[in-house]
Amino acid sequence: MSKHTVTLTDNATGKSLELPVREGTHGPTAIDIKSLYGEFDAFTYDPGFTSTASCRSDITFIDGDQGTLLYRGYPIEQLAEHSNFLEVSYLLLYGNLPQKAELENFTDSITRHTMVNESLKNFFNGFHYNAHPMAMLTAVVGSLSAFYHDSIDINDPASRDLCAQRIIAKMPTIAGAAFKHFVGEPFVYPKNHLSYSANLLNMLFSRPSEEYKISPVAEKALDQLLILHADHEQNASTSTVRLAGSTGTNPFAAMSAGCAALWGPAHGGANEAVLRMLEEIGDVRNVAKFIEKAKDKDDPFRLMGFGHRVYKNYDPRATIIRDTCHEVLQEMGMENDPQLELAVKLEEIALKDDYFVERKLYPNVDFYSGLIYRALGIPMSFFTVLFALGRTPGWVAQWMEMVADPEQRIGRPRQIYTGAAKRDYVPVDKR
Fold first, then answer.
1. At what angle do helices 365-375 and 383-404 cross, to 10 degrees?
2. Active site residue: 366, 405, 424, 429, which one?
3. pLDDT 10s digits, 83-112
4. Do 139 and 173 sit in the same domain of this protein?
5. 29, 133: one domain
6. pLDDT reading at 264 higher than 90
7. Domain extent at residue 271
8. The pLDDT value given to residue 151
9. Annotation marks residue 132 as catalytic
10. How many domains does the chain have?
């Protein structure tokens, strides 16, 4: 904590309070208001916590104005180009890029923990055939605590490590089982000789009746998308994981809470909304008309996949995934895909139109990721499951950091009560 302070004065009473200021490596400073309630008998009011730092974190930094995203200090562009998902997972969990032996041991541990207890598969039989995949993922992830009692001692660092690696390892297997239940096909077991992303593709698309050939382009694209989604600071689902975890609940329950929060259409369902928008536009000839509708504040139409609550510049993830999107569509023979043509036309207009430029409504990662998932043959209802899978190492890293932080207390947001004043109960026959 620096010697920098801020003085807060109550103009009604003249009472002043000197508050310390905390400074991070990058980004805005934060005024430490822990003493505010005790000294002033007052709370701060910040709906959505848009100006509130709820924790200290060494994991991820975002500069929305500059379009910067760093994992443990490393630019996302470098990691997406040179790294792989498991190496990035190690980085998020432990703070540094691994040495060769460390990466081999970590990869081996993840590989050996991909299997799930056979009884866990029975959970899927309790879901209706067309149950939403996120409903299955949320429930089954939460149920893991019933099978792995040996790794839920949150006060034991070794137990936390084991749990973290189990969660990252088992998420593709659970996701694959949810997908197979959704499409009515037999479950596929993980294969230890495949990479993390290739294994996921195999569990999604292979069938007993025929050999499934994994496309290296598809494998690379999926791995890259997982990296881009791996962590994103204190977003809604990550904050939910931290809030749930602050109670001391087991980590599987905290991860399940994260899945539930991610399921919301304002969070994890954004790339699905992009495809629905493109379907609504229908044809490239209609783009100009819908651009004008997007500018009309009285028109309910919204241009999905443009702009971001955090990024006030071009989303750095979108720059990376745009080229990958073209590679995947070419690999899958969809380079003339009408939705891609629509997407490119929308991007072209939005980057030149004064309305969008002035408001900095640039394409974000969701704009292209939905197109990639569709090209890979993944239904829209499953997009958020893949988002959850990619975000898992970030959730786990944030949970581990929160548990080990001596300053962290149980989450307890305050409120301004605006309900009825105190009143007396009246028996029902006298009301």
1. 130
2. 366
3. 999 999 999 999 999 999 999 999 999 999
4. yes
5. no
6. no
7. 74-407
8. 67
9. no
10. 2
